[in-house]
Amino acid sequence: MQKCQKCSNPATLHITEVLAENQFEELHMCEQCASKYLYEPKSKTALGKAGLEPARDPEDALFHQNECPSCGIKFVEFRNSGRLGCPHDYQAFREELVPLLENIHGEVKHCGKVPRRGQQNKEAQNELVQLRQRLKQAVTREDYEEAARLRDGIKQLEEAE
Predict the structure, then answer these.
(1) How many domains does the chain have?
(2) Cα angle at 40 between 34 and 46, to 5 degrees?
(3) What does the angle CA 29 – CA 31 – CA 32 come to, to the nearest 5 degrees?
(4) Which of 1, 31, 72, 105 is the most buried (most CB within 10 A)?
C-alpha cells in the first residue's frame, strides 16, 4: 500500500493532474491531505511529487487571486467547487472562463434549441394574430360575410393546435 506524499498515513486517494498535453502528474494522498489539496485555496505553491514546490508560473498565482468585487469568491474557489458565487462572476472571471467554456462547450454563447414543432407553432400564432386583426377591421367596416369567413379560419387554426 502506498503512503501519502505529505504525511505518513496510507494513501487512499490517487489524483492524476494533467499538466500539459501528454504530461501528467500522479498524486497519492490520504483523505485529509487530499481534502486540503482539493478544497483549500492554494497560496503561491503547488503540490509537487516530493511535497511542496514553488508555483511554475508567476502569473498562475495572480490567476488564482482574481476575486469578484460583488461576492468575494476567488477564481480558485470556483475551480475547486465548480460553482460561481453570483452573476457578476461571469464578468469578473471573464478571461479565465472564456477558454474554459470554449473547451467544454465549443462556444461561449448559449444559443439554445428551438423545438421542431415550435417553428410551425410560431407561424400559426402569427397567422392567428393577422386573422384576428382582419376580423376586427371587417366588423368595423360591417363586412359580416368577410368577418364570418375570417372567424371560421380562426376557429380552424385554433383546432389544429
Answers:
(1) 3
(2) 70
(3) 100
(4) 31
Range of the domain at 92: 66-112
pLDDT at 51 over 60: no
End-to-end Cα, the chain, rounded Å = 67
State which of 41-50, 76-85, 119-128, 133-142 shows the largest mean pLDDT: 133-142
Q: Are residues 88 and 125 in the same domain?
A: no
Residue 140: the pLDDT is 94
Are 9 and 15 in contact by the 8 Å Cβ rule? The answer is: no
Q: Tens digits of per-residue pLDDT, 6-46?
A: 888 888 888 887 777 777 788 888 888 887 877 765 543 44
Q: What DSSP line would sit under 63-102, residue for residue? A: HHH-B-TTT--BHHHHHHHS--SSTTHHHHTHHHHHHHHH
